[in-house]
Design a protein that fits this description.
The protein is an alpha/beta fold and 300 residues long. The chain folds into 2 domains: 1-59, no CATH class; 61-299, Aldolase class I (TIM Barrel), CATH 3.20.20.70. The protein has helices spanning 5-9, 11-14, 29-39, 70-73, 91-95, 104-111, 136-145, 166-175, 190-196, 202-214, 232-248, 274-285; strands at residues 21-22, 48-50, 53-54, 76-77, 79-80, 100-101, 116-117, 119-120, 149-150, 180-186, 218-225, 250-255, 289-292. Strand 12 (250-255), helix 12 and strand 13 (289-292) form a beta-alpha-beta unit. The longest helix is centred in the last third of the chain and has 17 residues, at 232-248. The relative contact order is 0.10. It binds iron/sulfur cluster.
């Protein structure tokens, strides 16, 4: 019996390695499947693929109805789904484009278990919103309601650069403990950002970095390198932006990995320029850059 993003995206192949593949969200499907196996009653539930076929689920999970897996992972999942559609990402494929949120009361209830409270969200600053137009009053209400050491806008509840406003940074510095803010930059080229359908520009990233510094927060930006649509010129622009950010902040770099179920699933990562690997190594040595930039081909 298997599930998760990879199995969900490739269930037609995975059914030949497993009896049951739970496709998509498992909170309701897995108990129904266990009941079916245990009692032999009814048919294989919707949302489970077998070699005999597959009927998709007709529902999405209401977050408040299930625990946020806090015992296992130690984080409270506050939102699920993403209204963005970045070409390399499985989140919107797996959880849909409609952003759903756990209620403040339930988040508070689960957060009582922790001294340090961390969250899971595709974009923590989008809490309570449709993922495109922020609702700062909801973010403030959430932060005000929590007691303990709050870490907001750090892994695994990173944020998007265009959501980093002066107002929300004031909320973070007022209510949260974090001294860093993690956000996705992904590329230093506007052409690449457009091709990825990121929905923000390089300028948004630069503004976000400046605002973090103005509010005494260390910006930590994520980048993907070796993207299939990236020209040498694009790669140089990305390295230039990385160098700029590491003057006053931190960068996390990952080599592009084509994930199943995404628009870029069949794309081939391109090899890095020698100047890129040299610079990444130098920045890693001085402690301003972390990550993994070995191409996936080196793992085969
Ligand atoms: S990368 Fe982030 S913003 Fe883009 S689709 Fe995935 S979760 Fe949403």
């Amino acid at each position: 019996m298997v599930g998760g993003p990879h199995a969900s995206a490739c269930y037609r192949e995975v059914v030949f390695s497993a009896d049951y593949v739970v496709v998509g969200e498992g909170e309701r499907t897995l108990p129904a499947l266990l009941y079916h196996i245990d009692t032999g009653e009814g048919t294989v539930p919707a949302g489970v693929a077998t070699r005999d076929g597959y009927h998709p689920q007709q529902f999405t999970v209401l977050l408040d109805a299930f625990p946020p897996f806090s015992v296992v992972k130690g984080y409270v999942e506050i939102s699920r789904g993403c209204s963005q559609a970045c070409g390399y990402c499985q989140t919107h494929q797996m959880f849909g484009h409609l952003m759903r949120h756990r209620s403040i009361d339930t988040i508070v209830e689960w957060s009582h278990r922790y001294r340090d409270i961390r969250f899971v969200s595709p974009n923590a600053f989008a809490y309570g919103s449709n993922g495109r137009i922020p609702r700062w009053e909801k973010v403030e209400q959430l932060l005000k309601s929590l007691k303990g050491n709050i870490f907001f806008g750090t892994f695994p509840s990173e944020v998007r650069p265009e959501f980093i406003t002066k107002g929300v940074l004031e909320l973070v510095t007022t209510y949260a403990m974090n001294t860093h803010l993690h956000f996705g930059a992904q590329s230093g080229s506007d052409e690449v950002l457009r091709a990825l359908r990121r929905g923000h520009t390089v300028r948004d990233v630069e503004i976000a970095v400046d605002r973090c510094r103005e509010h005494g927060l260390v910006p930590v930006a994520d980048f993907i390198i070796g993207l299939p649509m990236e020209s040498e010129e694009d790669e140089k622009k990305t390295m230039h932006l990385i160098q700029e950010i590491t003057r006053n902040g931190r960068v996390r770099v990952h080599h592009f990995l084509p994930l199943p179920g995404t628009p870029l699933a069949r794309s081939v990562p391109h090899p890095l320029l020698p100047s890129t690997t040299r610079l990444l190594g130098r920045l890693a040595l001085n402690g301003t850059l972390t990550g993994s930039w070995k191409g996936w081909d080196t793992l085969l």
